[in-house]
Specification:
Elements lengths: L20 H17 L5 H11 L6 H14 L18 H8 L2 H13 L7
Length: about 120
């Protein structure tokens, strides 16, 4: 009988590249905030949010783009208005962060990167 591979030893299936519900909700929240407040995010972020909120599976290239986004923009969460109760909440940076799937998106992308196929950079 074949042994199951550990998560760190196997590749993510296409189904695992469908955004989890928490990621979908964060992206939808980002879209709603952007519409309400008229700030935050770029056209690329809005397109990403539409795909994520609609539960579309992402490509490996998109996983890497998301990872790079989160690495570059984690600093935006240090700005005023990034958290409830702070003046200016939600800040443009917080809105953009949610467009990309928010904290749940970051966790999901980190998990997927551990499961990426061999040879994928």
């Amino acid at each position: 009988m074949p042994r199951r591979k550990k998560a760190s030893q196997r590749q993510a299936s296409a189904a695992e590249r469908i955004p989890p519900r928490a990621v979908q909700l964060a992206a939808a929240r980002g879209l709603a905030w952007r519409a309400e407040y008229g700030r935050g995010g770029t056209a690329v972020g809005v397109a990403r949010a539409r795909d994520l909120s609609n539960g579309r599976a992402v490509s490996w290239e998109t996983v890497e783009r998301m990872y790079r986004y989160f690495r570059r923009h984690q600093i935006d969460l240090d700005a005023q208005g990034a958290y409830p109760g702070e003046r200016g909440y939600p800040s443009p940076g917080r809105i953009a962060w949610e467009l990309w799937g928010g904290d749940a998106g970051l966790r999901w992308v980190l998990r997927l990167r551990r499961l990426r196929p061999e040879g994928f950079e």
